[in-house]
Amino acid sequence: MVTYTAEYGPDTIIYLNAKELANMTYIKYFEIVGRVIESNIESISESISRDRDISYEEARMEVIDSIIGHLANNTHEWSSGCQPNIRYEDPLCRIAYLYRIVPVNANLLEFVFEKDAKIEVYLDEVQKENGEVNICVFGGGPGTELLGLAKRTEMRRIEHQIVLNFLLLDQVNEWVESWRAIRKEIDSKFRNNINQNRNGWPLTTSGDSCAIDITNIDNFGNWGAVFGQDIYIFSYIISEVFDDYPQLKNFITKMAAQSPKGAKFLFIDRIEQRWKNVIIDLAENAGIALSEFHDTRSSMGVASPKEEKTDLGQIYVDVLERYPKGYPRLNWNAFWVVGTKE
User: For position 100, which CATH number holds?
Assistant: First the structure.
């Protein structure tokens, strides 16, 4: 038997066998996202209660109702067939996105790294050679990629530590608050369950954010200082900014020109041939050699059966009481492809 001290309290000893220990994970998508959401809701509700001299309970219900409104509107926008017009500048809209989208998209990213040896082997090679891996995430403010890579790294049970340095590119700079909150939750899980010393953690992370406008690339002076990254991730970006495709094409071409030879470009998007065609065109223009495309239709129930949506906590209860359609998304119908800078 293996003796293991869990986060239930300083005097709690839990006895686990080797198989149970190997299958244990501290990074749970719904739990971490739920904690981040609850902290945000409490802060916003307290502010409304104080400013308008109403009870905290009244303020909280107003906040929940606004979140539900964003859940319904965002779903409509994503299914409209047009470029989505979603108000990410509104903190309650960002909470709605965290609730519905971040867990499933993080799980999808974990799944891609698990199934595609090319990109994961490359990540390990860069880590071994440089002692760190620099990752540029286009639209990465919410923390989806941070969460997915954290859990994937933990689940691998590798002996060496992974050091991930993120560069977050997003039009909405306020997303950085959720990214940092998710990072804080991940660090807390490792600190409380593994070791107070970061040297014993499976991975450490850092991040810089940059508000971008792809329609005005002249705003960047020294592209090499910003975009000399090892891995670039575009998760559901192509299908969300297609009205600005010429500008996006110019942006990625210039970005790729500054990336080191062999750098990886990971594209994840909805299964539609038009988005595959767009990526083929982008890659050809930017000097990126694409691997084969991979289609995946699955769900968190299959990929991560131990994830429970009820771990979102009170927000899950509050939303469903008032909006029966307000479940977090669990399924994906996506493709991925890995490109290599030639």
Answer: 3.40.50.150
Q: How buried is 148 (Cβ within 10 angstroms: 0-12 exposed, 13-18 middle, 19+ buried)?
A: buried
CA distances to 112, 241, 282 from 252, rounded to whole Å, are 22, 13, 7
Burial 194-207 (b: 16+ CB within 10 A, else e): eeeeeeebbbbbeb
193: which 2 tokens? 């369950």
Nearest to 327 by CA among 56, 86, 30: 30
- Tell me the average confidence (pLDDT) per consecutive run of 10 residues in the chain, 342 residues long: 33 40 74 97 96 96 97 87 83 96 96 94 96 90 93 92 92 88 95 88 90 66 72 91 79 88 96 95 95 96 90 97 95 97 91
Residue 103's nearest CA partner among 334, 336, 338, 327 is 327
For residues 146 and 178, the answer to whether their CB atoms sit within 8 Å is no
Total number of domains in the chain:
1
Q: Find residue 142's DSSP bridge partners.
A: none
Q: Which domain holds residue 255?
A: 2-341
Which residue shows structure tokens 């009481």? Answer: 321
pTM: 0.90
3-state SS assignment for residue 79: coil
Any idea what DSSP says for residue 90?
S
